[in-house]
Specification:
It contains no helices and 24 strands. By secondary structure, it is mostly beta strands. The strands form six sheets. A four-stranded antiparallel beta sheet has the order 3-2-1-24, with no helix packed on it. The protein starts with 6 loop residues before the first strand and ends with a strand.
Amino acid sequence: MPSGQPHLYWANNSGLSHTIGGANLDGTGSSPTLIDTGFLGPCGVAVDATYIYWATETGGTIGRARLDGSKVDQNFIPGLNAPCGVAVDAGHVYWASTSDGTIGRANLDGTSVKPNLITGLVEPSGVAVDGGHIYWGGPYGIVGRANLDGSGSNPRFISGVDTFNGVAVTSKYIYWAGTKSLGRANLDGTGVNPTFVTGVVDGCGVTVDAAHIYWANDPSDGATTIGRANIDGTGANQAFIGGASGPCGVAIQP
């Protein structure tokens, strides 16, 4: 990928895939196998100003590499139970463990691992953070929320919606990926629009910047792609980037 441009990254989750792909935000410069994660089925990807992070269900790890794909650490945070979904902020890395029903957290350098920061959840998959809260999705029509320290957990913060895997948050809205659509709500959980973007096929990851929404289409059969729409939900292009392999997790370089 050309340097000096913002980048989009995704985790290739299907079949024998064990890679992280990347492209420029305009869809050019696609590199479907930018990083070899070392384990089958990476499930979730996050990016900060220096690193790419990913979760691997089969390996039970959070991996990390530099933004150009170098200095890969496949076992940056090891010993986890089926993590699927990862997020990062200025101080911590967060992940969802589907098998344990937990949200975990560690320092940015991989120390002070707390695998049970939030417990008692039902197959959480996908996680996002903002300045005050952690959010997560799940397969039973819910978006959960808790404080950053794990207190005040509300597993049904938003319920009765089509959720599959993946949440994102901005200063105004929460977004989630569903089996047939992308949903959106206000940060306080009101104004729920479960069909903000339609035509999605087994959405497995969503991310947002100032101009666009991006998501991963991960159908059980057929082409797997990265989709894009305008920030107001119009102009959806389900095949914005092709050549992905069961993408589950998508993130933008800040």
